[in-house]
Amino acid sequence: MDHSLLIIFWYGILHAFGPDHLTAIADFSIGKSRQKTLFITMAFAIGHGLSLFIFAKVLEHMNLSPEILAYADLISATVIILIGIYLLFMALTDRINLSLHSHSGKEHIHIYFGKKHSHDENDLKTRASSALTIGALMGAGGVRGMLITLSSIAHNEVNWLMVLSFTAGVMLIFITFGYIIALINDNLLTSQKNVKRVFATAGVISLVVGSSILF
User: Fold this and answer.
1) Could you give phi then psi for residue 152, rounded to 5 degrees?
2) What is the full per-residue pLDDT of the chain (215 aa) written as tens digits?
3) Among 32, 45, 82, 109, which is 20 to 30 Å from 152 by CA?
4) Helix (H, G, I), strand (E, B) or coil at 110
5) What residues does 111 pair with on adjacent strands?
């Protein structure tokens, strides 16, 4: 593999460790099955990579000041804060519930939002689409770092191999972190009380992380 692609891959790994990214992954993955968590984290990573590619391509032909690019961080912070407010509201108003039941003789737990539990076949598609969109929006916050990296290795010339290398690095960390969240789901989210506490904690962390980006 070309050395520049290895650098981009490593940059994707480092970029994924940002507290705003891990917070978003946690917010979307809490209470989900391992299969759903994997699918959601992959969608988030793909959306993130595509967003950075599009923004970088646009900025190749536009000379924007650092002050204007700084507004991209505002998008990431706003997304995280809104997610935090939503999770806190749902937890404090008892709109996140737990249902213990069985299918084909196997007992399992479902965690759902709202007062009524149902099996919606489109739920996974909806959440994956949301994760893809959020990943794309938050990708704006990484544009400056991406351009700095590219300027040092490829004179700001962005191609698909770079984007794939970056996305692979991001995806590696997101999937690993998603697996940790899946373990939390399996071992902690076994009672209504724990569900409320975990979601409320995720909401508070989102508010703190988002606010720290702004201030």
Assistant:
1) -85, -15
2) 467 788 888 888 888 888 888 888 888 888 787 888 888 888 888 888 888 777 777 766 776 666 666 677 787 788 889 999 999 998 999 888 877 666 566 656 667 676 555 555 556 677 778 888 888 877 766 666 666 555 555 555 667 787 788 888 888 998 899 889 888 888 888 888 888 898 999 999 999 998 998 77
3) 45
4) strand
5) 98
- Tell me the residue length of the chain: 215
Residue carrying the six token digits 């724990």: 194
CA atoms within 13 A on the CB side of 154: 21
Pairing of strands 106-113, 96-103: antiparallel
Match 């968590």 to its residue by tokens: 37
Domain segments of the chain: what residues? Answer: 3-214
Residue 64 contacts residue 193 (beta carbons within 8 Å): no
Of 200, 194, 185, 158, nearest in space to 8 by CA: 158
Pull the structure tokens for residue 122: 């489109």
Three-class SS state of 100: strand
CA distances to 41, 59, 78, 109, 202 from 214, rounded to whole Å, are 25, 23, 9, 37, 19
Select from 31, 23, 17 the least CA-distant residue to 127. 31
Structure pTM?
Answer: 0.76
